Amino acid sequence: MTERDESKLEGRIRIVFMEELSLASADAASFEIKSRRSRPPRHAGRALWAPLGGVVAIAAVVAGLVLAQAREAAVSGPSPSATQSAAASLTVLPTATVPPSLSTATPTTADATLRYDDGIPKVWDGQPVIRWDRALAMRATAKDATPVLVGAWLNVPVGVFSCPNDPGPDPSAPDSWVRRGGCQFNYVSADAGATPTPQSGVTTFRFYQGNLATGPAIMRIHIHDPRATECGHQRSICDDMIVVDDVLWTGDAATAPHPLTVADVIAATRAASPASGLRAPASDVWGCGASATDGLMMCPPMTPGVQYASPIAGAAVLPSSEALTRALPTLQPGVAGAVQPSAVDWTEGGSFGSWDYRRLVVDNVMILVRTSVGHPSGSDVQFLQMLVAALKSQEAASGTAP
Fold first, then answer.
1. Are residues 257 and 230 in contact, defined by beta-carbon separation less than 8 angstroms?
2. Domain shared by 86 and 111, yes or no
3. pLDDT tier for residue 158 given thresholds of 50, 70 and 90
4. Are 48 and 68 members of one domain?
5. Predicted local confidence at residue 402, as pLDDT
6. Range of 307's domain?
7. Which residues of 241-264 are buried (b: 16+ CB within 10 A; e: fewer)?
8. Which of 48, 211, 249, 342 is 20 to 30 A from residue 155's alpha carbon, by CA?
9. pLDDT tens across 111-142, in order?
10. Is 2 among the domain residues?
11. DSSP string spanning 167-198?
């Protein structure tokens, strides 16, 4: 065994030991993780996930929109009567804010190879990083508020959503962390593309002061927060909730989307349809309906009253093909899947025509394509084939083809 092999073996043994020690600390408080509560939020470079930025989900009643009407407005403009009648149950999330400049902090050289299968480091700043399922299990075992580092995937929604009525705070517990209604968004997934954990009564970002962004994260969390007394008669629920203190790391090259990157998707869609106009994820890119759990949303500009210039309506880029399969398990990849009735996300009609919006899956990307209503026409199928070929060609040109 070489010196390098011995070093790797020693490192792995150390990580296993540290992980178990970290779990034991939840019961016995025998392992102290360095506290950084007095420091501002710290982040590490996420070149591709950060542009989505963060949002704080707040409920707001919006007059003049419902999601279907917003899509129609992009073609023929809104109907005044519909505008006046649809008001009560819409929530707008503010456009995502771009996170502050990210630091260049990364795992040490020795720890850089010690990662989970999805690229999230097993160690951060010398401390073990457990995964989300183990953090959830700690709610039943933790004895105190000892902080723990946890790796997970964040799904931060933006745009317009139809929400149930939000009655506001419970008068008997006005400061409770448990929400009664409105949009209760899911933020945290154990694995990219997996069903997110409901936030209400389980997790709170109430005391986190930074921005959130879709993508991988290492968070410092704790349970049994003494501020649970704010929750009144719901104190026991708040006491068992996972409290997010900080987001310490938000991805690097190991967690970047592959085999297709955002740049690959832009290049391929423009090759298939020069007028496609897909934009990279940014604070103002939302509303085209191309969504998938833990996916980066890409949309073309939407101009009310102007006919669509391209059959490409949007795209969602996930970190891996496996993540996309988890997010959209019923969709068959390729053209054969896109022509199936199950691939139709919705059907739209307007003054300029009617379309089915079909989801085309290629590796780690879902492209939203407009086709004729019902069975796709021959020209629809030809376009889907050309789009798949362009995406595959881009993979080969980038050297990322599997």
1. no
2. no
3. confident
4. no
5. 59
6. 262-398
7. bbbbbbbbbbbbebbbbbbbbbeb
8. 342
9. 456 999 999 999 999 999 999 999 999 999 99
10. no
11. --SBTTBTT-SS--SS-----EESSTTSPPBP
